[in-house]
Amino acid sequence: MHRLPDDLLSRLLSEDLPHGDLTTHLLKIGGAAGVMTFASRGAMVVACIEEAARIIELAGAKATLHAASGDWAEDKRPLLTAEGPAECLLAGWKVAQTLVEQASGIASAVRRMVDAAQAGGGATIACTRKSFPGTRAISLKAVLAGGGVPHRLGLSDTILLFPEHRAFIGGDLSSYLLRLRQGAPEKKIVAEAASFEDALLLAEAGVDVLQLEKFPPELVEKLVQSLAGFSPRPVIAAAGGVNAKNAEAYARAGAQVLVTSAPYNAPPAEVQVRIFPRQA
Prior knowledge:
This protein is α/β, with parallel strands linked by helices.
């Protein structure tokens, strides 16, 4: 799994340590040799543990990994061990811990949705770009660790036709779908439908993916049945209010993709950190 760049991790570290650690400086314990351990507190999907190790290294200590992003960790599983001067361990401590806790909370929530969708027959969990601004790279790694995929990385990489776009366009639907296909022939056309009738209209016009906004599972199932004779049939993506509680129902209804932002609101996982002097 990819690793986040040092410039991002250095910014996280410098935000917490703009001018040194005043407490450690005044106590004059910075040079003491120490050990720091990270372990899971409760079961979790691990995410961004590699970045936590790198933050500790950027702070001046040496880190050894005992887990990888995407691993399932039972309670009290060792995740990381670090050794070095106390000032370095204390400098990297909270930034690294918080990063793993937040990212692992997202990853664990994604895994719960993946499992729920599998119980309903299977569907891809696609997380939107609606993570908190400035955290997209971290959130994306967490989503991948949990077994999900990005819905879209940003406005530049996919075509997603919203009703808000259509409000500005004159002419019939087929004419501007043709414009999209001719302008970017290598791209799939995804279109959001706000009603059952609109979904049928978009399907007949030939969109590649129908994104059903706030359709209940029973309406998704009705639409899937109505499109049974289409060839090729558009991919059905359920969006809006999709979460771990209803993922199974949406998968059973025939949705192939579950578009969600819910994991970004998951509570953080818990990581137990111990710091102590290294024995001679």
